[in-house]
Amino acid sequence: MNAASRYWNICRVNPAVERKGYEFRWVPIAQAAFEQVLEASKGQSDRVQSDLLSRFQVEESSVDLADQAQAGLCLRCYVSEPILRACQRIDHLFSSRQSFTYRDLLPFVLNDDGETLVVLDSDCKTQSILDHNQQPQPTAYKFFTVEILRSFRANSQSSMSLDNWTYLQTRQHPELKAFLSEFGFQNLSDWACLNQARPAQLACLTESDRRIVESFHAVYRRDRRMQPRQTGRGKCPEPSLAQLQEMLAELQQRKITITTPAELLKTLKQIAQSLRQLDVWSSREPLEIQVGEEGQSIERPDLIQDSISELDLDQQEFLEFFHQQLEQSLTQAIEQEIQKAVTRLQQSKRYHAFAAQFIPGLMLYYEQGISLKEIAPALGMTSKDQAGRILNLGALLSTIRIHTVQQLLDRVLAKAQQKGLAQPPLQPDYLQAILEQVEAFADAEVFRAAAAEIRAGNSRSMDSVYAQQLCRYLRLLNNGTTDQ
């Protein structure tokens, strides 16, 4: 599915579809509305989403309701895909337990029929459906897609995309969270919330509250680190009286007037509640990384890996290691697979004369964005098809992915054994579960966007992590600064 068609194909639950449990259904009304907005935007596709949002979230009472509803229908189609991806990502996070699959989650959040025309009131707070006379009628039934659009603020100070907002709202869906709680995936306690508070969250607090959390970190985090692993740290417990008294002593030095442990405990709980109530889109820290075509983005890595269970500091350190090793594995895989590709061409009876054109061809494609049709005559090839066979971009991406995943898996398993989290001989089920999570992580971070670039045709924008790393290595080769 290309970027534009997301606006007129809606993802719906369909248990009859073997293995997947969902289908994408074409919505003709949405396609016609999208094309009308695209024409009004003078073909500037990067403006279409903002134009659709402004038409759907309009605050004027004189708006054309049919126009508003059709714009909303386009956007409802668009957000249905990241809703699906969010459910699949939750499945990947907990796949080792095999307690449920993403198909069990879909009915909670994919409840949009893709047919009913829905509008918002002038305050963007209430959903209404349009009757046959194009008049709004109240409804008790709420489409989750519309709730996502109703709460999205495109012009906020945050750089969060609609895709990221959809992902976060899906994870926070009350019924979905209630379902997960049945399998032991509970929401964070006050103490876990405070323990894991990030600098961006603290920046939103008052200076006094920020100092209180810093004192909490100084005492509580220190004791969490010192607690032996074999005793099982488990969930974050309520601070002990001794810990509270030590925090009080430190707060006195910081000139914060709290006199009793009970008062401090109450204040800490209030701050934890404040952290929960902070709108995620008002965070000063970007929640996405821009890659690929204009308007496209991927979620920040810690959003992808953050689980609903309580992560202790050691687990957070492991995730940081995970991200670092992905970058190193990708770099090494690119180097090795490009060298192998050149060697294969040199040994090929049919294409050995073009071996020297392989690196220049990749540079033209990834660094300058030139199409295969234009690359062919520039490098002395007879046709676009021949250029495609020589560069073989899809095969190169596939082999680099395989190599990256294997290296990353080896490094993660070695780290897990070093930490005492896994000991040989490793069971096949355990290895399979780890492999699935490694593959899901690598695809989300690197290879999904890279594959989309190749499929994008002439409208591609080579800004993915894969393209950037590939171009970096190609420039090093071109400058003769690698070990060859």
Instruction: Kindly report the oligomeric state of this protein.
Output: single chain
Largest sheet: 3 strands, antiparallel
Q: Overall pLDDT, averaged?
A: 79
Low-confidence stretches: 229-233, 278-316
Task: Describe the global form.
Answer: globular
Number of strands: 7
Q: Roughly how much helix do the residues carry, as a percent range?
A: 55-70%
Total of domains: 3
Radius of gyration: 26 Å
Number of helices: 20
**What is the terminal separation in angstroms?**
40 Å
- N-to-C SSE string, H for helix and E for strand: EEHHHHEEEHHHHHHHHEEHHHHHHHH
The helix-and-strand class reads: mainly alpha
> What percentage of the residues does DSSP assign to strands (E)?
5-15%
The largest beta-sheet arranges its strands as 3-4-5
Concise synopsis of the structure shown:
The chain has 484 residues and is mostly helical.
Describe the fold and architecture.
The longest helix is centred in the last third of the chain and has 35 residues, at 313-347. It is built from 20 helices and seven strands. The strands form three sheets. A three-stranded antiparallel sheet has the order 3-4-5. The chain is globular, with a radius of gyration of 26 Å. Helices cover 57% and strands 5% of the residues. Mean pLDDT is 79; it is low at 229-233 and 278-316. It has helices spanning 28-40, 48-56, 65-93, 102-109, 144-151, 162-171, 174-181, 190-195, 199-202, 207-226, 241-253, 261-277, 301-305, 313-347, 358-366, 372-378, 384-391, 393-418, 428-455, 465-478, and strands spanning 9-13, 22-26, 118-120, 127-130, 136-138, 288-290, 297-299.
